[in-house]
Amino acid sequence: MERVGGKRFLRREQLEIILQALQTEGYRCVGPQRVEGAMVYQPIQTLSELPQGLRDQQSAGSYRLTETQNRPQNHRLFDWANGPQGLKPLLFPPQEPLWQADKGERGELTFRPLGVEQSPLAVIGVRGCDLAALSLMDRHFLREGAEDPWYQQRRQQLFLIAVECTTPAQSCFCASTDTGPAIKQDYDLRLHELDEGFLVDAGSAQGALLLQPLALAEATPSMVKQSEDALQRAAAQQQRAVATDDFRAIFAGRETSELWESIAEHCLACGNCTAVCPTCFCHREEDVSGLELQQSSHQRVWDSCFSGHHSQLHGVAVRSGRRERYRQWMSHKLAGWHDQFGESGCVGCGRCITWCPVGIDFVAESARFVEEQL
Amino acid sequence: MKPTVAIHKFSSCDGCQLAFLNMGEPLIDLAQKVEIVHFAEAGMVNPEAEVDIAFVEGSIYTPEDQQRIKTIRQRSGLLITLGGCATSGGIQALRNQTREHWCDALYPSPEWIQTLSTSTPIADHVRVDLELWGCPVRTEQLIPLLTDLLRGVKPTLVDEPLCQSCKRSGAACLLVTAGKPCMGSITRGGCGAICPRYGRACYGCSGPVAAPNTAPLKSRFSALGLSPEAVERHFSMLHSGAKPFLSEGVKDE
Q1: CA angle A19, A23, A29 (to 5 degrees)
Q2: Residues B118 and B170 in one domain
Q3: Complex ipTM tops 0.85
Q4: Mean pLDDT in runs of 10 for chain B (253 residues)?
Q5: Which of A32, A94, B83, B221 is spaced 20 to 30 A from B23 at the CA atom?
Q6: Of chain B residues 168-207, which have a CB less than 8 A from chain A?
Q7: Domain interval for residue B186
């Protein structure tokens, strides 16, 4: 990726100038907001809307935001790991009309595509795991010759301000999937937060243009050293690690393993894991019409391989129960993705662990298949 | 010929019928597309009429109910149950598991009250073509069903838990962020996740999904600090008569 200039120092309040410049250029900005006890990307207009000094405590089935007591860190804006959603809902909305059919006076039908009528979007506070997920989503939605026009339009108008993660949650395992906590690619601006401000560099010409008028001083060697140490600590702190990057050989011939049954005993089949997974892209399509029966809109809606209708073929659910559905979710993510996209579908964000209502640990459960084989 | 429709009431609170009355403008469209021949709450009374589509609200709770539902079945093309009472026996099915004579304690002249010993869903008595869950059902559930029927296609009733629509709405999980005992993971969607979006845990008013795994959720509720009685009560509120919840609810032995 194009790297434009070295690391420079940005005072915390100077982030406001970047935010305002983006809005002047017509961008809608979203950033992390505390909503109902979780960090959620929401529209923001000024830097003051970003909450300061918040941390997240995540574990299997639990997420809590806490305020940091430590004084210099009270001002930090990005001391949390992640929230319930990454970039997925911003690029692939949970429910989206694709086209519309209208009935004319003589009963003739006309069809018209519905485009994306949204201004460009800038996201502040994107994590390494979510950038890795974005790259996987690109491979699916922008596959050559089969580009998804709705996704494509949003993607082309996306400006990403990534922030390196220095306080991983107990559920995180991005060091083992090599997707974080350091950020290496796919950003317009990359920030690393220190107590006194940010290290910043541009990853695109557009990002560099935004930095230029600020005439920022180069980061001092001690700041750079501080940031490198913080990233090393963040990787070393992680308590989970995937047993292997590629589970194809592990799952091969294990379709009827009793381990699937033992997971299914605990699984609610609620599909929360798939909904929060930043790389899950399954959807169903529905037609929505009023009772006047003159117009109908064709929508795509997030769906889950845990739902009964998802594997219906000719009226029969091919994956009949929780065992088959959990197997589909895990084996597709960790093995099938390699065949489909050339790498694992798991980016180590840990959301499926945190947001599982009964705290099923995806990493630990997948490791049992490796142990069983040894 | 416009299709004919009847809306019948059995033992219930009338709330599901309001999904028709509260439709607003689409009610005018509906009145142009179908002929509503019986809908006592709206003023049309012809309970004996033969119809193409009968919507049935309420559970079977009296000897008279038992007979009347059989007649309605014979005189109706499609029979569609509307809401929790008609589909699971409703909140009044709580009495199915009690042996105490509340009736004697509550009413001055209990001899005037003639009920069966159980409140049961319509499908226990006659063949039902389609079941619409909810307590009450919402206009938003009814309109897609009616448009499908008017177009002559088989209505699609999505079998997915509430969590799916809750996540699509962007709400953060109350069980995970606040430790609230939310029933959403094993409760049928369709309500639009109203409660969790306003910070209240789902209490299962839309009934259980097709094959709920109740045991792990009960363990989770216990781990949150709920007493065994409080856990059971979550499963025996509005749908104690629904088969997947039947074994989970309070038993007054």
Answers
A1: 65
A2: no
A3: yes
A4: 96 96 94 96 96 98 97 98 96 83 85 91 97 94 95 86 96 97 95 94 94 95 96 89 63 37
A5: A94
A6: 168-179, 182, 184-186, 199
A7: 162-246
